[in-house]
Amino acid sequence: MTSTEEFIELSERRSAHNYHPLPVVIHEAQGAWVTDVEGRRYLDCLSGYSSLNFGHGNPKIIGAAQEQLTRLTLTSRAFFHDQFAAFAAGLGDLTGKDMVLPMNTGAEAVETAIKVARKWGYEVKGVPDGQANIIVMEDNFHGRTTTIVSFSTDPDAHDGFGPYTPGFKIVKYGSIEAIREAVDANTVAVMLEPIQGEAGVLVPPDGYLTQVRELCSAENILMIADEIQSGLGRTGDTFACDHEHVVPDIYVLGKALGGGVVPVSAITANEDVLGVIKPGQHGSTFGGNPLACAVANAVVELLRTGEYQERARELGAVLHDRLRALIGKGVVTVRGRGLWAGVDIDPSLATGRQVSVALMRLGVLAKDTHGSTVRLAPPIVVSEEDLLWAVDRLAEALAEFAK
Ligand SMILES: *Cc1c(COP(=O)(O)O)cnc(C)c1O
């Protein structure tokens, strides 16, 4: 089997159609560039939905993984292993929190945050058993488990998977008034993405995160920030909450924490919150395994100097400048922060999918979301020259549709 068509035909025939991939079959990658099975090269402007913030084959991350791979990969948490202490302390320090609880996928970390918030509600806040509620946002994306899709407002994610888990109140994103109205005596948490990624890189109004923080503190409610996609350098800060100097009670992390190598997720919080979990009450066989910890330790090390954050901020300014210049030339609006942009395409010209396919033919990999948005999130290691080249390809694609 050698051709793109053969790989796609067999993949589509023998796998569930839970994704709608672009017709490209990737064989290898380095830095910001991938190569397909026919030898064509593409600039990766998706980065595995921000899992590859530090680039494909990052030498520090791959080096740590290779060293760990041949020495010790799994113990289960029945025992300690020698990568775990550095992981807990390092990720705790990066987030300024006392404690971490490692899982694997993002959805598992979100589930963990929900469970911890409920338990904290019953044991610390004194909410009557079984009565806790968590305030979540319209157009959220927190993963795909049955509980998480219970409070999704996206019909594709939600419909047909009931019965649904109760205990969530959905409010409008970006409105502090909406949260204030939803709060009651049994509210244990407000959970949000500081920038909504899947919804199309929606940035809330300035001051919103600060207002949420103040409201949560005043009402004795936990603020949970799902930074799975927005965190770890993407927006030009370590966390998107940093933009407003806001510190949530619980950070939810994933994606880039695994360095593009293995799934690694975690929540971090102070002891007054995460201390409610006792032995046997929550866990995961692979959570915090030696390979995962070695990779995450390399990621945390990369973020310690701030150079990736600064690079995302500087290149992000260039990216947003150039994208804004396309407004009126096939682009309706541009949103985002740092090296992360949601570009709304003029629907009279083309769909986001059509633009993504056209970009692919021109050597740029990006993905549409919600019909008319194209999301751009190249690895932070991308060169400025390559980044500008990608924006030129977008301009070229849009010009073709305008003909
Ligand atoms: C991707 C994502 C998740 C889910 O992570 P998985 O690893 O796919 O389970 C949750 N929240 C946000 C904000 C995400 O972007």
From TrEMBL:
Keywords: Amino-acid biosynthesis, Aminotransferase, Proline biosynthesis, Pyridoxal phosphate, Transferase
Name this polypeptide is given: ornithine aminotransferase
Pathway: Amino-acid biosynthesis; L-proline biosynthesis; L-glutamate 5-semialdehyde from L-ornithine: step 1/1
A Pfam family annotated for this UniProt entry: Aminotran_3
Natural source organism: Streptosporangium saharense
GO MF annotation list: identical protein binding; ornithine aminotransferase activity; pyridoxal phosphate binding
Keyword Amino-acid biosynthesis found: yes
InterPro entries named in the record: Aminotrans_3, Aminotrans_3_PPA_site, Class-III_PLP-dep_AT, Orn_aminotrans, PyrdxlP-dep_Trfase, PyrdxlP-dep_Trfase_major, PyrdxlP-dep_Trfase_small
Family: Belongs to the class-III pyridoxal-phosphate-dependent aminotransferase family.
EC number: 2.6.1.13
NCBIfam families for the chain: Orn_aminotrans (TIGR01885)
